[in-house]
Amino acid sequence: MVSNSSTGPLVVVIGPPGAGKSTVAKRLAARLDVEWHDTDEAIEQAQDRTISEIFIDEGEPYFRAIERTEVARALEAFDGVLSLGGGAPMDPQTQALLKGHTVVFLAVTIADAARRVGFDRTRPLLMVNPRAQWTAMMNERRPTYERLATLRVDTAGRKPAAVVDEIVARLQELEQQEDQS
Ligand SMILES: Nc1ncnc2c1ncn2[C@@H]1O[C@H](COP(=O)(O)OP(=O)(O)O)[C@@H](O)[C@H]1O
Ligand SMILES: O=C(O)C1=C[C@@H](OP(=O)(O)O)[C@@H](O)[C@H](O)C1
Ligand SMILES: [Mg+2]
């Protein structure tokens, strides 16, 4: 059984756009019989507009500010499986708040990310030259994702159910190691 011995989310899921964070976090929550919360979804509901509309209407700095606040609130108050937007872990305040949490980094290649996301217009940072943007973004972000991660799970060529299976197994291993120490 994967249990939550501290306050805050049971698991926080991070990674680049197209890694499957929202999809996998939702299924993982169902498997663990806990709630799922996605910071992008919460922002869209609170603002009553899409992430793309927020970027276009207000600009990225505005989005990052509300994202920082929403992530801090969720890390404090929510105790299920939490998925963040791909850029959220780049914020220094968020990095500090993630310390001590169980963070799962979903890794993905450009080939799989492109296939999954299709690079449509729902991701505002990938509207112009999406492949080059995604690759540059990933090169810049990868060290941060790796540094913050408790677990790194490769999603390349794997269906969400297989990714969830691996996360559950590795969380159980972690828990056993902690029980023994
Ligand atoms: N492991 C996977 N294999 C194939 N498709 C996936 C996988 N994970 C997610 N998807 C699909 O990829 C798209 C993007 O997934 P999403 O969860 O929104 O990613 P993220 O939140 O990391 O940007 C969705 O259409 C989803 O159904
Ligand atoms: O990588 C990013 O900076 C972003 C990723 C998106 O979330 P997903 O990673 O869930 O697509 C969303 O938060 C926004 O478009 C910005
Ligand atoms: Mg998402």
Automatic annotation (TrEMBL):
Belongs to the shikimate kinase family. Pathway: Metabolic intermediate biosynthesis; chorismate biosynthesis; chorismate from D-erythrose 4-phosphate and phosphoenolpyruvate: step 5/7. This is Shikimate kinase. The gene is aroK. It comes from Pedococcus cremeus. Keywords: Amino-acid biosynthesis, Aromatic amino acid biosynthesis, ATP-binding, Cytoplasm, Kinase, Magnesium, Metal-binding, Nucleotide-binding, Transferase. It comes from the Bacteria. Substrate binds at residues 40, 64, 86, 141. GO terms for molecular function: ATP binding; magnesium ion binding; shikimate kinase activity. Signal peptide: none annotated. It catalyses: shikimate + ATP = 3-phosphoshikimate + ADP + H(+).
